[in-house]
Amino acid sequence: MNRYIQEINTSTPSSFTPKILNEDGVVWLPSRKGFYSLRSAWEAIRVSNGRLDWCSIVWFPKNVPRRAFILWMAMQGKLASKDRLLKWSVVDNATCVPCRNRALESHNHLFFYCTFSRAVWKKIL
Predict the structure, then answer these.
(1) Interatomic CA distance for residues 38 and 30, integer angstroms
(2) At the top level of its lineage, which domain of life is listed (predicted)?
(3) How many angstroms separate the Cα of 84 from the Cα of each of 61, 91, 105, 107?
């Protein structure tokens, strides 16, 4: 132990003089003020990708939370379509029922390629 203290003393510059009257303290470097908080810890470990183009379409004042959540899931391709359910072994058949079993029911198929969905989109637009 004494050897380690001697190493520290020899490696410390001679201009450094510790202040004996001040107490040691812990400083949380990821925080601007040096204090730990859950927010500063989260900001230190998360990966930020910036703001998404479609974010304002989903999250806006006076939105209907249920619809916003479903749209948010759809924008990420995370809705429980039959192709995803087939991977989890929840269903045995992943063919699309609205277009009479002509294709595999996937996120893209349901929203863009299904004949039934196209007819609905045309009516809406």
Answers:
(1) 11
(2) Eukaryota
(3) 32, 9, 9, 9
Q: Do residues 96 and 109 touch, judged by C-beta distance below 8 A?
A: yes
Burial class of residue 49 (count of CB atoms within 10 Å of its CB; 0-12, 13-18, 19+): exposed
Residue 40 CB contacts under 8 Å (≥ 6 apart), including other chains:
28, 30, 31
Does the reported pTM lie above 0.85? no
Length of the chain: 125
CA-only gyration radius of the chain, Å: 29
Taking the C-alpha atoms of residue 52 and residue 63, their distance in angstroms, rounded to an integer, is: 18
DSSP for 58-122?
HS-TT--HHHHHHHHHHHTT-S--HHHHHHTTS-S--B-TTTTS-SB--HHIIIII-HHHHHHHH
Report yes or no: 99 and 116 within 8 Å, Cβ to Cβ. Answer: yes
